[in-house]
Amino acid sequence: MNETNVSNVILERLADVLSGLTPEARKAATYVLENPRDVGVSTVREIAKAARVKPNTVVRMARQVGFEGYDDFREPFRDAIRQGAADFPDRARWLQSIRKSGGLGGLYADMVQGCLRNIEDSFANISEDSLKEAAETIWAAQRVFVLGVGVMNANARNFTYLASTGMTDFHAIPQLGSTAIDDLARADGQDVLIAMTCRPYRTEVIEAVRIARDQGVSIIGISDSPASPIVRVAQHSFVVAADTPQFFPSSVSTIALLETLLSFVIALASDEIVERVESFHRRRHQLGLYQGVQE
Prior knowledge:
By secondary structure, the chain is an alpha/beta fold. Helices cover 57% and strands 8% of the residues. It folds into two domains: 3-77, Winged helix-like DNA-binding domain superfamily/Winged helix DNA-binding domain (Arc Repressor Mutant, subunit A, Orthogonal Bundle), CATH 1.10.10; 128-286, Glucose-6-phosphate isomerase like protein, domain 1 (Rossmann fold, 3-Layer(aba) Sandwich).
């Protein structure tokens, strides 16, 4: 097992015991879950200061997941590269400085490497069984609501568009001129909400997930940390890597996950979905929406 996978196992263990920790230890654990790349390059005092706890609290947290102390806990993270820690404006200025120095070749390499690493890290921790269970929940639902705001709204609409070629009652929310909470007003236990948000977590998404849960809606949460508020309350949760040299979180892994999840839904669905997709595209051909190859 490579070092990245070992550190991911530790993070999973930490997420599992999170609710049972003392309030102070929970603060330390949450900081680690939110900033795993900091662990390999930080002392126990630095982590404690960042988490606003005492150093012995960090040590107790490490022991809670089976390590003798912080040094043992840190070892699997030691070679991780700290990435994505700067604020958005600082990272935007950094990009500008690269452009002015003629260093776009390095940026290009970093972007490609980041995209590949994000996909590898994400799918290394997503099992076939978890995708199958989420896909079964989607196929059995009466309605599927797909929630994302900001850049995640585009991801939600893309997923909904693809799904709607073969399935009905898929809704990207918030709809134009509405709010996610209003769009979920009549959702109930027969429905599913797929919710997405990455750090910094959007308040309206967290609140919509909370209300949907109260209404009995099944939640599929997609985020970039096991400590994410929507991941912790979801029946089906997926943690994606969103690191990037850019100033915004990467959507590459989220899109790849959504496409894979949709492929599982189609694979599990009844034969009628194939007929629907064929009918959808046949109609487009008949209406001239596709341009044929010119001779």
